[in-house]
Amino acid sequence: MEVRALKNPYTDYHETPGGAQYHFDHRGRLTADFAGRVSDKISELLFHMENGLKSADPRDCSVYTGWAGIALLYLHLHRTFGEITFLQRALDYACRSLQSLTGRWATFLCGDAGPLAVAAVVFHRLQRRQEADECLSRLLHYHQFIMRGEGLPDELLFGRIGYLFSLNFINQEFEQEKIPIQYIQQISEVVLTSGESLSKRSCNQEQSPLLYEWHQKYYVGPAHGLAGIYYFLLQPGFGVGETRLLKLVKPSVDYLCYLRFPSRNYPACIGDTRDLLVHWCHGAPGVIYMLLQAYKVFGMDQYLADALQCGEVVWQRGLLKKGYSLCHGVAGNAYVFLALYKLTHDPKHLYRACMFAEWCMDYGKHGCRTPDRPFSLFEGMAGTIYFLADLLQPMKSKFPAFEI
C-alpha cells in the first residue's frame, strides 16, 4: 500500500491521560497557555497569508480557493475574537468576490452562491440591510435553475447539495428563517428523486435505493459523493420525512458502511479497491459526518462504533504528506476529532485534535507538498487558520462550508 501519511509521533491519550492537562482542563476548556499559543500562531499565519494573497488569482471568487473563502475565514475570526477589524477584512474580500462572479455554477464552495451568501452575512453583521437583501435576492434567483437544471449533479462542490448548503447557511447565520424552509425542502425532494432514478437505472435498488454520480463514477466521500449527500438528507427539517428516511436513506447509508475496507477506511468510489486516501474529500475523515448524523437520527450504536473506527484511521494515517489543508490535509482531518468530541465528550478526541493542532502549528516544517493555491481556504493556509480558531471553542466547531 502506498504510504501517503507521515508517522504519527504523538503518544495517544489512553497511554498518558495526564498529558492532556497542558492543553485543556477536565471541562474541556483549553488552558490559557495553549490557547495563547494557538492565538499567536493564528496571528502569525494570517500575516503570511495576507502577503501570499497578493499574488493570488484575482478572478477566483470561490469559497473553495478564492476571495469568498478568505471572507468566510475573517467572518469566523470575527465570531471567535469579536474584533471589528476582522469583519472589515471580511467585507473587503466579500466585495472582491462579488466583482468576479462567473455565472457558471450555483454552489457554495465552487459557484456564485457562496460569494453571495457570505457577502449577505457580512452586510447583515454590519447592519447594511439593503445590500444584504440584494445578495439574498440574487442568491434565490438560482433556485429554479437548481430545481429544473437538466444534467445538474447533486453533489456538494458543483451540485444541488452545494446550493442547499448556501440556503441553510443563510438561515443559520441570520438566526432566523430568512430563506423559507420550503426552498430547502424542495431541493431535498429533487435530490431524492434524482437518487432514486439513478438507482433504478443502475439496477441497484436493493443495495442502495439512492445513488449519485459525478463524472460517471459513484464517489463515496462528501466532496463529490454519496456520504455528503446522505449527510444532508439526514438533517432534520430538510423535508425527507421518517418514511423515506427508513426506506431510502438508511439502506443507502448501510450500503456505504458495507463498502469499508478491513482497515476501516473507505474507498474513494464504489468499486475502487485501493485503500489509499485518508482525506476529508475521500476516505474515513469525510464519511464520519454521515455516520454521526445517522447515529443521531436512527440511534443505532453501530453507526457510532463505525465513526469511532474512522477516528482511529485518522489518528493512525491522518498526518498527510499533502500538507495542512482542509480538503486533503491535516486541518481537515483534525475536524474528525472535534466532531467526535462534540458528540461523546470523551477527552481522548479533544486531545487528538490538540495534537493535530500542534502539527499544524509547525506549519511548513514537515516537508509536505505545497498546494496549487497555498493560501486559500480549502487547499491552503486559510483553512489551517480556520481550524485553529475553531479549536479555541471546540464545542462550537464546524467543518466550514459543509457541517450543519
From TrEMBL:
Chief location of this protein within or outside the cell: membrane
Lineage top rank: taxon: Eukaryota
GO MF entry, a single one: metal ion binding
Keyword NAD: no
Record field: catalytic activity: RX + glutathione = an S-substituted glutathione + a halide anion + H(+); 1-chloro-2,4-dinitrobenzene + glutathione = 2,4-dinitrophenyl-S-glutathione + chloride + H(+)
Example of a GO cellular component annotation carried by this entry: plasma membrane
EC number(s) stated in the UniProt entry for this protein: 2.5.1.18
Family matches, as SMART domains: LANC_like (SM01260)
Entry binding sites for Zn(2+): 281, 327-328
Enzyme class: transferase
Subcellular location: Cell membrane; Cytoplasm
Membrane topology: Peripheral membrane protein
Pfam families: LANC_like
InterPro entries linked: 6hp_glycosidase-like_sf, LANC-like, LanC-like_prot_euk
Keywords: Cell membrane, Cytoplasm, Membrane, Metal-binding, Transferase, Zinc
A GO biological-process term: carbohydrate metabolic process
Family classification: Belongs to the LanC-like protein family.
PANTHER family referenced in this protein's UniProt entry, alphabetically: GLUTATHIONE S-TRANSFERASE LANCL1, LANC-LIKE PROTEIN
Protein name: Glutathione S-transferase LANCL1
Source organism (scientific name): Paramormyrops kingsleyae
Classification of source organism: Eukaryota, Metazoa, Chordata, Craniata, Vertebrata
